[in-house]
Amino acid sequence: MASTQETAVRNYLLSVRDPSALRDDNAIAGLKAKLEQSNDELERLQLRQQLLDIESPSLERYEDAFVEHAKAWAEKTGISGEAFAAEGVPAAVLRRAGFRGVGGGRRRGPTRRESARVGTRSRVSADEVRAAIPTGTFTVKDLQERSGASAAVVRRIIQEEVDAGRLTVEGPDTGHSGPGRAPTVYRRGK
Predict the structure, then answer these.
(1) Using N-to-C axis directions, what is the helix angle for 140-147 and 151-163, rounded to 10°?
(2) Of 13, 14, 115, 149, whose CB is crowded by the most CB atoms within 10 A?
(3) Overall fold of domain 126-188
(4) Measured between alpha carbons, how far is 84 from 93 in angstroms, rounded to an integer?
(5) pLDDT (tens digit, 9 = 90+) per residue, 98-150?
(6) 75-98, pLDDT tens digit by residue?
């Protein structure tokens, strides 16, 4: 005979995979028969509600039973949270049940050591940004893409070049049609 813990786990996994499998078709048939025979309006109303409840069972009760019993059952049988996740149990439900280290939670950012090794771009010098300034018109984003420098570095170099008279400010991009303010267009001086 199945334990309460095992039944809770089995029913929840079944509800995740196929919620309609938890319907009790014999009980539904019995309620429909009672409903057809009943002449009392209030009794019919109560039978109708019972029928609605049985036809589409609340998955919440199965989830609550799973949360209550799954961790103890899993420890007893050697089942990991990852195995439950692979069977379709959402990470939030696993965390509620007491499983730790299962995906989907808040993640910490990388440590300083990790961020120094992974995903950092190399430093771009001011001379490299200046060398990437195109002939004709361009925006901060254009120069940022050409040089690989950050937007802040590109803006600083552009301002230095404007102050030195080597770039001119053409004004807002007249061809801009996207959301937000139009980017400023710059032109290399002749």
Answers:
(1) 110
(2) 149
(3) Arc Repressor Mutant, subunit A (1.10.10)
(4) 10
(5) 998 776 555 555 555 554 455 555 788 888 889 889 888 999 988 988 888 88
(6) 999 999 999 988 888 888 999 999
The pTM (predicted TM-score) of the whole model is 0.45
Predicted local confidence at residue 17, as pLDDT: 83
φ/ψ (deg, to 5) at 62:
-70, -40
Amino acid identity for residue 80 in this structure: S
With CA atoms as reference, report the closest residue to 183 among 149, 131, 139: 139
Distance of alpha carbon 44 from alpha carbon 42, whole angstroms: 5
Give the H or E element holding residue 137.
strand 137-138
**Collapsing DSSP states into helix, strand and coil, what is residue 186?**
strand
- The tokens describing 9, both together, are 């786990």
- φ, ψ of residue 171 to 5 degrees: the values are 110, -170
Domain boundaries, the chain: 4-97, 126-188
Q: What gap in Å lies between CA 57 and CA 59, rounded to an integer? A: 6
Query: What's the rounded Cα separation, in Å, for the pair 17 and 34?
Result: 31
Can you tell me the distance from the alpha carbon of 170 to that of 185, in angstroms, rounded to the nearest whole number?
A: 5
